[in-house]
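Following up on my earlier message about flavin-adenine dinucleotide. Here are the inputs again, as you asked, copied directly from the submission form:
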Amino acid sequence: MSNLNIYVVGAGIVGLTTALELKKDFRNASIIVIADSFYKDTTSYVAAGIFRPTSGDFGKSEEITRKWICDSYSYWETLRRSREADLAGVKEISGYIFSRRYPHIVRNKYIEKLVPIYRQASEDELKLCTGDWKYGSYFSTILTDPARYLKWVHQQIENMDVHIKEKKIDSFSDVSGKCDVVVNCTGLGAKILCEDSSIVALRGQVSKVTAPWIKNFFYGDYDTYIIPGFDSVTLGGCRQYESYDTRFSRYDYLSIREKCEKMIPSLKQAALIEHRVGLRPHRIPVRVEIEKKIVNGMKLNIVHNYGHGGYGVTTCPGTSLNAVQLVKQVLLEKNKL
Ligand SMILES: Cc1cc2nc3c(=O)[nH]c(=O)nc-3n(C[C@H](O)[C@H](O)[C@H](O)COP(=O)(O)OP(=O)(O)OC[C@H]3O[C@@H](n4cnc5c(N)ncnc54)[C@H](O)[C@@H]3O)c2cc1C
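Thanks, got it. Here's what our run produced:
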C-alpha cells in the first residue's frame, strides 16, 4: 500500500474532510490536496455552519440520504465531545424554527429522531419572536464554525503528511497518469471541470454582527435566520438561483436586517462586523460516484464528491466516508489493496 498515490481536488470543507478520512484509512499513501482557492476564498468559509439538512432527499435514495446524515451527525458529535471541539469550532446549539404559513416547514424527517431534542414549540414559545407565528419546533443540534474548522482540519492533514498544493486543474488530463485515483471535491468548480450542467449556483449572503445576548438560533419564513456562533451572530439570508455574483449587495443586506430585526427587535442594536457572500453548489442528487474516464489514452479513476448545495457542512462527513469506500473499491479492482 505504500506506493499509493491519491489526489484530492478541492480545499473547501468537502475536500479537506475527505483528505482527512482518506489519510485515516490509507496511512502510508501519498495524498495530495490540490486547489486554486483556500480558506476565506471558499464557499465553505461563508456557511453559517448549522447541522440542519433539508427534509428532501439529496442522495440518490432516501436510504443513502439517511446514511450520509447519520454518519455526518456521528462525526460532528464525536468531534464536539472531544478535547478538540473548541479549536475545531464545534458546539451544541438549540433554537426554534417558526412559520406563519405551513406546518411541514417546521418538521424534518431526517433529524427529528437523530438529535437529542426535537419537539413542537409551545404557545408561549410561538410568541418569543415578533410576528404571528403559527407553527414552530424547538430542537438542539450542532454548530460548526467553518472559520475554525477549516483551519483545524487543514492543520490535522498537514500533521499527517498530506501535501497541499495551490493549482488550478483545467482538465482531468492535468492529473491523469500521476495518481491511482483522483477524488473530485471541487464544489461549483465541477460545473466547468466536469461539464456538469446539473450543478448550479444558489447565491447566498450573510452578515456577521455582535449580539452576545442571542443564545438560541431562530429560523423564520422567507429564508430568515439568526444563528449565534462562537465569535458573532450570523444574520441571513437569501438563496438566488443561478446567480453567480460574489459581490456584496446592499439591497440584500438591508432586506436581511429588516427580516431579522422584525423577528427580534433588539438586533437593531447589533453592531455590524462583516458581510460574506458565497455560491452554494446546488445539485440533486449530490454526486458521490465512481467515473472511469479515458484521458490522454489512459484510464483515469475519478471518485466524485460534489454538489452539496446549502448543506455541505451538515453532510460532508457522510459523503466523504462514502467517497473513501468508493476509493477502496477502485483500488481493490486495480489490485492495489
Ligand atoms: C450563505 C451560506 C450559508 C450556508 N450555511 C450553511 C449551513 O448553515 N449549514 C450547511 O450545512 N451548509 C451551509 N452552507 C453550504 C456550504 O457552505 C456548502 O455546501 C459547502 O461549503 C460546499 O463545500 P465544498 O467544499 O463543496 O465547496 P467550496 O467550499 O466552494 O470548495 C471548493 C474547492 O474546490 C476548489 N476548486 C474548484 N474548482 C477547481 C479547479 N478546477 N482546480 C482546482 N481547485 C478547484 C476550490 O478552489 C475550493 O478549494 C451555506 C452556504 C452559504 C453560501
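One observation from looking it over: Residues 189 and 195 are 10 Å apart (CA to CA). Hope that helps, and feel free to reply on this thread.
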